[in-house]
């Protein structure tokens, strides 16, 4: 049983700039929901602290941190007769909840983002007016065994993963009584698309493929789904890389650098999901990936740019080729998608967004059950990589976390790939949501194929 003991609105410790902040095109395109993260702490130090003291420490340090990252204390604002958000710098504050659980940490198992884990993050009613919803939501939960979880949600219209990790690092540092190390770059006008930017040939951001011999997207999106958390060891990843690179030589596809661990893991997941879904041989399936472009755009953005510097890249393959061509071919298709992320593509992406007259028609709620926006699930796959996010541990004064991962996996075919940061043993974790009728077959293929590499 979980009980919320108190609720706080945490505002910046000192007066911060007011007014309305410009949000560039790529902010406007992001889902109107929160990116959720869960941190788990299980040290003797944190066990000895009371919930009220932990809350006081985090509340005080958060208030100081929000003076530096003050946009997170504001609210989204949608002007009348417009579909483009502004950021109201009104210092309305972040929501912080303190809660107690009668459960022990071991009751949560492997921290798979199930509804039980979702309870450790404040829920958001997205039917409320957007200007009433905090951009940052936090929940501190103290367990019966003394362990503590820190569940967070960051409004995705305002920040991306790299900005979130930067914020968390500085908050932890301030909580430990240290000075901030890197200040955020807050001027978003550097991403204002100029009139001379245009959509270049080869740019594609069309609607996702739909099933050619099954139910339509509206029927698919309401089917029951479930979430799993899987681990790939360093040795298993090495096997995938070896097989993909050998297969690459046989097919003659892209004889360049050896495939990265993300490329082979994404290819393996894509194949296993597609086979488990029993797609028609002529079915086109799309892999959708988010790519950061702070250093891809010319001139590059400041490294500590605080906002969204993300673009969407996709790559398509028929089920026939996905099956027959082998893991190396599919890993090559993953690389093909990633390689699109050039300066020219970034500027085409931003120019495409600038031409959108009504963003309300393309925004979507990144959660199960929504009817808004294109359905990204069956027969398609969306994989977000957290592999490149720097995580040196978020020590708020009681030691580093034993686990950090996503708090929610939003829809069918959505997955996160991330290191098990606490171990740093070269393994990767996969958090994935799939329709219940497909999940058992997927898990069988996911691990069975690793012991029978000839099938790859």
The CA-CA distance between the termini, in Å, is 45 Å
**Main sheet makeup:** 6 strands, mixed
| Low-confidence segments | none
Shape type: globular
The chain-level structural class is alpha+beta
What are the secondary-structure elements, in order, as H or E? EEHEHHEEEHEEHHEHHEEHHHEEEEH
Question: What is the β-strand count?
Answer: 15
- Rounded to an integer, what's the Rg over CA atoms? 22 Å
Strand content: 15-25%
Identify the strand order in the major beta sheet: 1-6-7-8-3-13
Q: What is the overall number of helices?
A: 12
Helix percentage range: 25-40%
Average pLDDT metric: 91
What can you see in these coordinates?
This protein has about 450 residues and is an alpha+beta fold. Helices cover about 30% and strands about 20% of the residues. The protein has a six-stranded mixed beta sheet, with helices on one face. The protein has a six-stranded mixed beta sheet with strand order 9-15-14-12-10-11. Strand 6 (about 95-100), helix 4 (about 115-120) and strand 7 (about 135-140) form a beta-alpha-beta unit. The radius of gyration is 22 Å and the shape is globular. The termini are far apart. The mean pLDDT is about 90.
